[in-house]
Amino acid sequence: QVQLVESGGGSVQAGGSLRLSCGLSSYPYKQYGLAWFRQAPGKEREGVAAIGSAGDSYFYGDSVKGRFTISQQRERNMVYLDMSDLKPEDTAMYYCAAGRPLKPFAPAHYNYWGQGTQVTVS
Description:
By secondary structure, the chain is mainly β. The protein is built from no helices and eleven strands. The strands form two sheets. Strands 2, 4, 5, 6, 9, 10 and 11 form a seven-stranded mixed sheet that branches. A four-stranded antiparallel sheet has the order 1-3-8-7, with no helix packed on it. Strand 4 (33-39) and strand 5 (46-51) form a beta hairpin. The radius of gyration is 13 Å and the shape is globular.
């Protein structure tokens, strides 16, 4: 069973930056996609950033383009989300996910999820 563990969340003022990290216990598949989702209270889970299964395609949600950057170190089983110019509307629980998605921001296409890390922007 693949386990994902997020870290790096916290409270930050608007305009600030944070780096989220996610460690995978093992490779879920030979080729797999990685993504960050977020969910605010009362809202649906939203895709934030994703890396395609081949590792060479990057996807970003419209609300974070130009502010967030997803990256990975496959040799270390790590994926990161660098967030800058944070806004109060970025406040949410952030989750990393791994799978073989046909659509980068379809939560149902990801088999493995972390427990989440809270980001609060004030």
